[in-house]
Amino acid sequence: MFFCAVAAAGFVGGWGLILGWHVQAGAMPDLPANGLAYAALAICAMALAGRCTAKWHPALKRVSTLIACSVLAGIDVGLSGLSGEAAQKTFFAALLGIALVVLAARHAPAGLRQRWLGKDSA
After folding, report:
1. Mean pLDDT in each 10-residue stretch from start to end of the chain (122 residues)?
2. What residues make up the domain containing 111?
3. Which of 37, 82, 112, 121 has its CA 20 to 30 A from that of 102?
């Protein structure tokens, strides 16, 4: 249970940092940095899903991470005041970072998956 709480704190804190960075900037963020920031958030989300939802199928954990992080990226774009092409680029840079982490979780070596996602994740 301790690992679940730590992963949840990292996930919420990470999104808070990203949101604060975007709202403070007020303009379109650097796209590679945005993708990396959301990739880091997806890493925390995968750890959260691996630790807190041990009974779920691994594919469900990956899909739930993808959906949850994508929703947060959309909320972030809306709250930061971006519109039009800048909003699309920012959202899709975040989505690319999230998707790469979800794919990496699927194709990572078994030892890394067990440490990152918990014992029963594949």
Report:
1. 73 80 73 86 85 82 90 87 86 93 85 72 52
2. 2-24+31-117
3. 82
**Residue labelled with tokens 């030892």:** 111
Residue 122 covered by a domain:
no
Query: Phi and psi at residue 81, in whole multiples of 5°?
Result: 85, 15
pTM: 0.82
Residue 121 has a pLDDT of: 54
d(CA 49, CA 111): 17
- DSSP tag of 81: T
Q: What CA–CA distance (Å, rounded) separates 42 from 66? A: 8
Q: Could you tell me the two tokens for 42?
A: 């997806």
- Structure token pair of residue 60: 């469900």
92: in domain: yes
Whole-angstrom distance, CA of residue 1 vs CA of residue 8: 11
